[in-house]
Amino acid sequence: MDSEGRQTFLNESQRRAVSASLQLVERAVQEIERLVTSPATSLTSRLADDLSADECRAIRTACVQVRTALSIACRRLKAETAARSRRAEIRGEVATLWAMLEDTKSPALRGYGPLSREASAVVDEALEEISKELQGILRVVADPNPVRSGAGHPSPKV
């Protein structure tokens, strides 16, 4: 039984594992919905507009059904997560991106084959610039005096 007297089927570690998987499903459904809503290109990829309007409608309908099943699963498995900090989530996303960018720098790319000094410099400089700009996001979420809604814009400490 949990603190509210409900029958529990999963221990805390199991509940977290299930919750993490369900969160991945939710994120994937959000991405699928984005893809069928606006097949526009991004800065890093170009997608063929190869879905008909009927296919897009069918996929959106299926996404609603997946969300319904997801909601039921969360309730049945008590996999709802406690309120999480947006600040902490953003810091986690930035940390993941930093690690990924570090793993993409020229020393790692040499594992795929020879890389000229010029190419190494261009790659590393571009990735360092992205990392530098990500620090701007981190400065905002690390601010001990967060700006509340409607109170103006934060001024990141440099």
Keywords:
single chain, about 160 residues, extended, about 60% helix, mainly alpha, disordered C terminus
Topology at a glance:
Elements (H helix, E strand, L loop, with lengths): L11 H26 L15 H24 L9 H17 L3 H4 L7 H26 L16
Describe the structure.
This protein has 158 residues and is an all-alpha fold. The longest helix is centred in the N-terminal third of the chain and has 26 residues, at 12-37. The chain has two domains: 12-76; 86-142. The protein has helices at residues 12-37, 53-76, 86-102, 106-109, 117-142.
- Could you tell me the number of beta strands? 0
Globally, the shape reads extended
Rounded to the nearest angstrom, the radius of gyration is 21 Å
List the total number of helices: 5
How do you describe this structure in short?
The chain has 158 residues and is mainly alpha-helical.
